[in-house]
Design goal:
This protein is an alpha+beta fold. The protein has 28 helices and 28 strands. Among the domains are: 2-222, Immunoglobulin-like; 331-466, Neutral Protease, domain 2 (Orthogonal Bundle); 472-559, Immunoglobulin-like, CATH 2.60.40. α13 (562-571) runs antiparallel to α14 (575-589), α15 (596-610) packs antiparallel against α16 and α25 (776-789) packs antiparallel against α26. It is globular and about 90 Å long. The model is unreliable at 1-20 (pLDDT under 50).
Length: 843
């Protein structure tokens, strides 16, 4: 009868889009408990709000919630909800007409039904929607008991009823009741921990500054807090108790990051505390920057050695999440269209911090190529829309592509150059200080830019923010001997065809820096097809580098002779130009028409760069370029060079030199490899183990087996041993490899790759030894247990491992999976995808 009344009310209501926005949430209080067996949360949501327009009803977003009741002042309210997850799916009928000036608090009793399962095709980590429950399983007995939430962009509806409109900001309060020894982490500050009579504990958090709903988050698990102080601010780093020393190593730069952001924004960290908490099955980079409590993958935690090798990687994720506390929390986007003001600034500051902490070359050789490749990938694949898109078809897709993050960060760097350093930083500070604790728009940022610079930048915002397009420039040079002038003709050759509904830039404009020998000169590209730039030059230049450090976002075609390329490699101050030079020269050297003279000159040029005092990543790139032109057997000078490099270098360069020397398979170098197995860098140890295995030398087996007993973070030395044994091919290793496959309790990364995850390295080694059939019964039994445990991550880890075996018996795997998931279309689709990979591998 009750349900009939609800539907009767629904028939009498004409739902308009405006109704969905007829609420201003003021405060959200969640009282939750958790059932790990059923993988659900239950409790109540208290929503304090007002209506934007006079009325007696409003809508909320809910995602497959089971709602028991809705009350206001202890009186039941009628509601209409079909149990689905569409926008505005929960209609609540109030007890009377309410004016916008009136505030009310309603209580919704409910429990979740949607299970945020792992993505079967991204088992190294995925976000999903709502709450992900994890617990020990038969396949992974050491899996930790955890719950964590994923809300961006509109996924919090799957664990509490809410208004997902990004413009509806509010304060929050959570009361999370968990069994001891579990700990709960939420947004804001921990108010109290209540010890309950049943030995459970209730963690009470309060966030007293309004923020967008998608940044509401919780984590439950066993943690130890490694705290840090920065003046009067406390940083909480929640890690696993037995990894405390590694947590300390990982977060060592976090106080410096916070101070850096305070100084650059001219604004103190805006909250009382900041927390980082690591969880399982979370993706890289995962830098959402939830309100005062960022969630990161537990793969973020490394010991001192690994962190020193990979500082550039995870530190960037940490500083990005921290930057979101200013850009996303202190300054909140007024709509999803303004998301770039979060993501773009966070990515920009992550690159800037690594530049400050390491070197400008670190940004240029690591961050920038990653950013630009993502931007080009979207553009070339046909994913084209403005950075500020006012016609967003799918918010989740819009929030995850390259435009609001990578393209936006590159655009900010261009704007910095156009404005000049002083004006740029004054504008950033003005933007943050003027709009603190407000919802911001692109216009707000543009106002700060124009206020500080004293001139209009409408052309810039139109070109890079509001319109689409990607410039492609063709450069041709000519030296006028009579006039003693260098002439550069630059053609904008990007397509003028616009297949989208967005306005497109026909021709771009902006400042471009040109490097001519030892001079740097700025020119202004006009918005027209042809531009010509003339420079006085007493003699033909040795080289011309157009678009110094690639600050202007574009692609450039510029043909050069071998001599010009070699001069650029030798003389340019632009690390990107020198790397691009290497690419061009390697292509020339590997051409069938290349002369021995060219190859010899390039060998000398590249070895000179490797041995120079340039930044390490650039020298590493040079070593990789050298490898591309070498053929076996190596000549004496190459061997001497590699030996000297191994002796002199460390970490990445040393490991690559060992790997290159190891290609020779010559046992006379085995002592070099054996010595390198004691190196402090795990990268070096792995390269040395593989090289030693390739020698097939006497005694190599015993040396490699000793690595198992050499301590390393998350069994990296085990991976190195397995990789070396794979190359060695000694059947004596079979029992050890099988033991590694059986071992599902030792520490590891869960990244489903042989580089980082020892079960995958073990299976590859067993396959190489021709004994893959011995692993099948182990993995088959484990797969069946994983299906029973309902753990998708476990299931598809076993599927991936079984596929590597290329065992004909695995046909039964797909029979079992298709039966188990016949009524689960998303998982069944993944099963068919893996089956296709299996069948292709069996051909």
């Amino acid at each position: 009868m009750k349900q009939f009344i609800y539907w009767l009310v629904a028939l009498c209501v004409v739902i308009s889009p405006a109704m969905g926005q007829n609420i201003d949430t003021k405060h959200l209080a969640l009282h939750l408990q958790f059932d790990w067996h059923k993988k659900l949360a239950f409790g109540k949501a208290e929503i304090t709000a007002r209506l934007l327009n006079e009325g007696d009803r409003f809508f909320l977003d809910a995602g497959f919630l089971a709602i028991q009741s809705v009350t206001l002042n202890s009186k039941n309210l009628a509601f209409v909800y079909d149990g689905g997850d569409q926008d505005n799916s929960l209609e609540i009928i109030l007890d009377r007409m309410y004016h916008p000036a009136e505030t009310f608090t309603l209580v919704i009793n409910y429990h979740t039904t949607y299970e945020n399962r792992a993505d079967p095709v991204s088992i190294g980590g995925s976000f999903g929607k709502g709450l992900r429950f994890q617990n020990a399983t038969s396949a992974t007995p050491n899996k930790r008991k955890q719950v964590w939430s994923s809300g961006e962009p509109q996924h919090n509806r799957y664990w509490f009823p809410c208004n997902e409109d990004i413009a509806d900001i509010h304060t929050t309060e959570v009361f999370l009741t968990v069994d001891q020894p579990l700990m709960a982490i939420g947004n804001g500050n921990l108010v109290e921990v209540i010890e309950n009579p049943d030995r459970s504990r209730t963690f009470h958090y309060l966030a007293d500054q309004p923020f967008p709903n998608y940044l509401v988050s919780i984590v439950v698990g066993e943690y130890e807090d490694v705290s840090q102080m920065v003046k009067d601010k406390i940083i909480h780093n929640y890690g696993y108790a037995h990894e405390r020393e590694a947590v300390e190593a990982t977060v060592v730069l976090l106080p410096e990051m916070l101070t850096f952001l305070e100084e650059k924004t001219c604004t103190p960290y805006p909250y009382k505390s900041y927390s980082q908490v690591v969880v399982q099955d979370y993706p890289f980079p995962g830098g959402v920057g939830q309100h005062t409590a960022a969630i990161l993958s537990d793969n973020y935690i490394d010991d001192y050695g690994v962190h020193n090798d990979f500082q550039y990687l995870w530190d960037g994720v940490a500083v990005q999440a921290l930057a979101n506390q200013w850009f996303g929390n202190l300054l909140m986007p007024s709509s999803w269209s303004e998301l770039w003001l979060n993501n773009g600034f966070a990515q920009y500051f992550a690159g800037l911090f690594t530049e400050m902490n390491h070197a400008r070359e670190e940004y240029l050789t690591y961050y920038y190529p990653f950013e630009k490749s993502n931007v080009l990938g979207d553009w070339d694949s046909g994913n084209r829309h403005p950075i500020r898109d006012t016609v967003i078809k799918e918010v989740a897709t819009f929030a995850s592509d390259s435009y609001s993050k990578y393209r936006a960060a590159l655009v900010l760097r261009m704007l910095q150059k156009e404005m000049g350093e002083e004006n740029w930083w004054r504008a950033v500070c003005d933007f943050v200080q003027t709009n603190a604790h407000r919802q911001v728009t692109t216009t707000d940022f543009q106002n700060s830019v124009e206020k500080i610079s004293g001139k209009s930048f409408q052309w810039f915002f139109d070109q890079w923010i509001y319109k689409i397009g990607f410039p492609r420039l063709m450069v041709k040079k000519h030296y006028d001997e009579k006039q003693k002038q260098l002439v550069l003709n630059v053609s904008q050759i990007q397509s003028q065809v616009n297949d989208s509904s967005y306005p497109m830039v026909s021709y771009f404009e902006g400042t471009i820096t040109i490097e001519i020998d030892n001079r740097l000169m700025d020119v202004y590209l006009k918005p027209q097809r042809e531009n010509q730039f003339v420079f006085d030059s007493p003699s033909p230049p040795l080289f011309v580098n157009f678009n110094f450090e690639e600050n202007f976002l574009c692609e450039v075609e510029f043909d050069k002779s071998m001599e010009e390329w070699l001069n650029q490699l030798d003389l340019s101050k632009d690390v990107l130009a020198r790397q691009n030079t290497m690419d061009s020269l390697v292509t020339m050297a590997n051409d069938s028409t290349a002369t021995l003279t060219l190859k010899d000159r390039l060998w000398h040029a590249l070895t000179r760069e490797v041995a120079s005092d340039q930044y390490w990543r650039y020298r590493w790139y040079a070593l990789g370029s050298l490898q591309k032109i070498l053929t076996l057997p190596y000549d004496a000078k190459t061997i001497k060079f590699l030996e000297a490099t191994i002796q002199k270098e460390r970490s990445w360069i040393k490991s690559t030199a060992i790997q290159m020397l190891g290609r020779s398979k010559d046992s006379k170098f085995k002592d070099i490899y054996i010595g390198a197995l004691q190196d402090p860098s795990d990268r070096v140890i792995n390269a040395a183990a593989i090289a030693l295995g390739r020698t097939k030398s006497e005694g190599a087996y015993n040396v490699l087996m000793q690595l198992e007993n050499q301590p390393s973070w998350k069994n990296q030395n085990r991976i190195s041993a397995l990789n070396g044994l794979q190359q060695l091919g000694d059947p004596s290793a079979v029992d050890y490899i099988l033991a590694c496959i059986k071992d599902n309790r030792s520490p590891r990364w869960y990244l489903a790759t042989p580089v980082w995850d020892y079960p995958f390295a073990a299976v590859n080694a067993l396959v190489a030894l021709g004994k893959a059939d011995l692993a099948y019964p182990i993995l088959w039994e484990r797969l069946q247990g994983a299906i029973t445990d309902r753990d998708i991550n476990d299931v598809f880890q076993q599927v991936q491992l079984i596929n590597l075996l290329k065992d004909s018996r695995a046909v039964e795997v797909y029979v079992l999976l298709k039966e188990a998931y016949k009524d689960d279309p998303p998982i069944l689709e993944a099963v068919l995808q893996y089956e296709g990979i299996y069948l292709e591998g069996m051909k």
